Sequence to fold (125 residues):
Amino acid sequence: MTYVEGFVIAVPTANKAAFIEHARLIDPIFIENGALRVAECWGDEVPHGKQTDFYGAVRAAEDETVVFSWVEWPDKASRKAGMAKIEAMMKDDPRFDPSVNPVPFDGARMIFGGFETVFTLGRQP
Fold:
């Protein structure tokens, strides 16, 4: 089964276009290094919870939108190998240079994790 790495971030709503441009430059790197697909999902119907929610998880402000993203890998070993390659190239690849491709959100508030797929249903896109 595939291995999924998920991310939740708060992006200033005014930075939506900058976020998409940033993703267009960074996301292909995952595919180049073995990922099957990458999805960037701009919050549309994200409810506020009574006890917990996405907004609280990333301390989103009123002028920010919650973004949910994921990278799908063939398996955990592929993810480990791919991320090792990506980490090694971060210092040399201009796509990671903040003067070329500034990060349009506060990465310190990002939550992320790796997930083993245990069941899927439906067609793949």
Remarks:
- The domain at 3-57+75-105 is CATH 3.30.70.100 (Alpha-Beta Plaits).
- The CA atoms of residues 14 and 63 lie 8 Å apart.
- The mean pLDDT is 95.
